[in-house]
Write a structure and sequence with these properties.
Elements (H helix, E strand, L loop, with lengths): L1 H25 L13 H7 L1 E4 L13 E4 L14 H15 L4 E3 H22 L6 H12 L2 H4 L8 H19 L6 H15 L9 H11 L5 H24 L3 H16 L6 H7 L24 H10 L2 H10 L1 H15 L27 H8 L5 H21 L5 H26 L4 H4 L1 H25 L8
Helix pairs in contact: 1-4, 3-4, 4-7, 5-20, 7-8, 7-18, 8-9, 8-10, 9-10, 17-18, 18-20
């Protein structure tokens, strides 16, 4: 009877989540995200173009209609992404139901929402035996149906892939924590979702390091030689996926990102811009471009010599080295990023289409409780949260070293270490990998931070509950 009751509760929570999402995504005025210029990376390879094709809707309004246009490609800006799997499903579904000529953005919203509900249901299912499962379910429902996340479903960004593959991966990770030993099937599922997550966006490439380390831990818990080989092969596949994503960034977007980092990030924060340029191996005379973006009037991207110098002398690693050599500048840069880092609402994206009659760039305030909590509360303690993300893995490693034998507690601690390590990785990659469109670049950091907060809160409440009871219950 309790099992039936929990199954019924699970169905109710999934239905409630679907109702909240459906109301936001499909009931007029629909909620989505305006194009900031990135939609073409998904649209072009699929052979579609927006209507209108010009900049009329960019930033201000959600573009709803897209038509077949094989010539609408800018190959030098395209990027491989596991979002193409989701996009192909959406386009195929539209062709079957409507026809190949045109599609509405809500087709993507429907595809994203259905996969999200599958991932959400899987998360609820693998946590159904936790002592604090009701608390965990309520928090997941509150966080994941917030407009800060839901608005991405009606869009052609790659953030939906980052979110969906992470949720599936998190569900499989929790399932591993519940298992004394793990089968080859569990290992293969975990590694497939890990590779898809890494390949959602270029900035996810660095996640291969903590994920591969966690994968190697599976070797000791795998059933049979085949399982151990699967875990080792998965770690290799994860590293390869990270390398492929890092190397796949084409010259045009790579130069654009490096230009942002140097001329919109490093130089405006400098006391001596010429000295910084010299330290980066660039001509000090380029200081005149400080504060400009690749598309700003008078941008240095129009200077071929500067572009060649950027490609030859500046890379993600040289930028990291610059900040390591200048710790005061690193701290100043972090402080400048904190105000936007904890926001879930992209700076330059309207949430409504033009027919809704809202002002350009208007945002929805529906289902925004968690978004407001981020902006009004979490943003004020950003430094404290960052410090906790550093201390938690350190304390977790000490715990794991002191408890070398396999126990349920150790498995949960290892998952906590993984979440915190991935969260820190996502933050620093976004904070130092680009200096424009900061909220959207910190999407994955906030998603992982929310996962950490739910994880820590449920663990703390469980600990308090156990303190008042003699029963030894699972988390």
């Amino acid at each position: 009877m309790p099992a039936v009751s929990r199954t019924l509760q699970l169905c109710v929570v999934v239905a409630l989540g679907g109702t909240i999402l459906g109301w936001q995504l499909f009931v007029p005025p629909i909620i989505g995200l305006a194009d900031q210029g990135d939609f073409g990376r998904v649209l072009g390879p699929l052979g579609y173009a927006p209507v209108p094709k010009g900049p009329e809707h960019k930033y201000a309004y959600v573009t709803r209609t897209f038509v077949q246009d094989p010539g609408n490609r800018e190959r030098r800006w395209e990027q491989i992404s596991s979002e193409f799997i989701l996009a192909t499903v959406a386009v195929t579904l539209n062709r079957v139901l409507v026809g190949p000529g045109t599609f509405d953005i809500t087709v993507f919203g429907f595809t994203h929402a259905v996969l999200f509900l599958l991932a959400f249901a899987r998360l609820l299912y693998v946590t159904r035996n936790l002592a604090m499962y009701r608390t965990a379910w309520a928090l997941m429902l509150l966080v994941l149906t917030d407009v800060g996340y839901a608005a991405y479903w009606n869009s052609l960004y790659t953030e939906p892939a980052s979110c969906l593959w992470f949720l599936f991966l998190l569900a499989e990770s929790i399932y591993l924590c519940e298992s004394e030993q793990i089968s080859m099937g569990q290992i293969l599922r975990w590694n497939i979702f890990a590779v898809l997550w890494i390949m959602a966006k270029t900035q996810n490439a660095a996640l291969c390091i903590p994920l591969a380390a966690y994968d190697l831990r599976m070797v000791w818990r795998a059933l049979g030689r085949g399982g151990r080989y699967a875990a080792l092969g998965g770690a290799v596949a994860i590293c390869v996926a990270g390398g492929v994503m890092y190397r796949s960034l084409l010259p045009a977007p790579r130069v654009s990102v490096l230009y942002d980092v140097v001329f919109f990030g490093i130089l405006p924060e400098a006391e001596d811009a010429r000295a910084d340029l010299k330290a980066l191996g660039l001509d000090p005379n380029y200081a005149r471009y400080s504060g400009t973006l690749p598309w700003s009037p008078g941008t240095g991207v129009a200077d071929g010599t500067l572009v060649n110098a950027l490609q030859a002398n500046v890379s993600s690693f040289s930028v990291m080295e610059f900040y390591v050599r200048h710790p005061a500048r690193l701290w100043r840069h972090l402080q400048a990023r904190f105000p936007a880092a904890l926001s879930l609402r992209p700076e330059f994206c309207g949430n409504f289409d033009r027919s809704a009659g809202r002002p350009p760039g208007a945002r929805s305030n529906a289902v925004a409780l968690w978004s407001r909590f981020h902006e009004r509360c979490l943003s004020r303690i950003a430094l404290l949260l960052l410090g906790a993300l550093v201390l938690v893995p350190a304390a977790g490693v000490v715990f794991v070293m002191r408890h070398r034998w396999a126990t349920p507690a150790r498995r949960w601690v290892e998952l906590g270490i993984l979440l915190a390590a991935c969260c820190l990785t996502a933050f620093f990659v976004a904070a130092f990998g680009d200096t424009y469109d900061n909220v959207k670049h910190q999407f994955l950091f906030n998603l992982l931070l929310d996962a950490c907060l739910v994880f820590w809160l449920v663990a703390a409440l469980h600990r308090l509950r156990r303190g008042g009871s003699n029963k030894q219950q699972p988390l």
